[in-house]
Structure formats: C-alpha cells, structure tokens
Amino acid sequence: MRAKNTSLAKACRVLTVTLPADSDAETLFALQKQVWLAMARYQVEGLIMDASALARLNPFFAWMVGAAARKVALTGGRTVVAGMQASVAVNTTRWGLNWANVLMAPDVDRALEVLKADG
C-alpha cells in the first residue's frame, strides 16, 4: 500500500521523502515500508525528510525518523529533516528522543547543501 500524500524521489544517491501532514498509523507504516525499501534498493548515502507540511508530531512518527536515521548512519550516510516548524520540533526534545544522527535544515534546498558539505 502506498502512503497517502507522500512522495519519494532519488537523485545522486540521496532519497528525498515528503512527509504527510496527517499521520495516522496506516499511513506511517506504509511510509516506513516505502522508505526502507527505497533505501535498500538505491543504497542511499543521504536521506532528506521534508517535514514542512507537519503541523504536529506523534511519538511513532518521531521514532520512525530516528530509526531511519540510524539505518542510514549504518552505511555512513546522513539524514536531514527539512522544514520542520519550531513548534513541532520542540516535541522531540520534550519526549527525550535521540535524534543524534539527524541534522536539521530550514528547507530541502538547504538540506541538500548540508549533505553536500557533510559528504
């Protein structure tokens, strides 16, 4: 099943994922499967998660971001979350999530620059 309101694009070993504004469990599980299959298929060195549409963050979704970042880090890659509003990002700190492998950028263009500078 395809996650609704999401898109995945791969360019130059970087996978870009547009995250859905609404994040029910069915959508999140479908998105997780899509991302992990694409990561394996394309052997990505960078993952950009465009979170600009998110108005809120639920704990499972936040866990999924951390898990994807850890998986990319295992292959020496980096993960960048782009466009996350400050009011949404504050929950990651409030919940004590470990996003040690996650970089942040204000938008997707800057996320690409971060990956280029980091690589």
Largest sheet: 5 strands, mixed
First and last CA, distance: 33 Å
pLDDT < 50 stretches: none
| Average pLDDT reading | 84
Q: Which CATH-level-2 architecture? A: 2-Layer Sandwich
Q: Give the overall form.
A: globular
Number of contiguous helices = 4
N-to-C order of helices and strands: EEHEHEHEH
> Can you list the strand order of the major beta sheet?
1-2-3-4-5
CATH superfamily: STAS domain
**What is the CATH topology descriptor?**
Transcription Regulator spoIIAA
CATH class: Alpha Beta
Number of domains: 1
Q: Into which percent range does the helicity of residues fall?
A: 40-55%
Give the amount of beta strand, in percent. Answer: 15-25%
Number of strand elements: 5
Kindly name the structural category: alpha/beta
Radius of gyration over C-alpha positions, nearest whole angstrom: 13 Å
Task: Reconstruct the topology from this structure.
Layout: E1 7-11, E2 14-18, H1 25-42, E3 46-50, H2 59-74, E4 78-82, H3 86-94, E5 102-105, H4 108-118
Parallel strand pairs: 2-3, 3-4, 4-5
Antiparallel strand pairs: 1-2
Helix pairs in contact: 1-2
Molecular structure report:
The chain has 119 residues and is of the alpha/beta class. It has one domain: Transcription Regulator spoIIAA (2-Layer Sandwich), CATH 3.30.750. 45% of the residues lie in helices and 20% in strands. A five-stranded mixed sheet has the order 1-2-3-4-5, with helices on both faces. α1 (25-42) packs parallel to α2 (59-74). It is globular.
